[in-house]
What we know:
By secondary structure, the protein is an alpha+beta fold. It has one helix spanning 37-47; strands spanning 4-7, 10-20, 55-62.
Amino acid sequence: MERSLRFSYAPNLLYRTINTKDPTLGSKKGFMPVDNEDYQGALREHNSGGQPEEFVFAVVQNVGRGPATNLVIEANITCEIALTP
């Protein structure tokens, strides 16, 4: 499921989440992941050869005309999985 919203204090930024089984985002054009500890962990988990996992990424898109500067965004995503027997 993909959801999107705009920040009231920054109307030129669009926030959304994407779900993928490929954390390299190779099939997604125009995405540039932030190479931090969380992203490196996702890559390690993906390359471990275990059971396929699904990854959730927060995406911030600048839909304005100029660059977005002095921007700090923290995203916490909580996933709940319901399994039926």
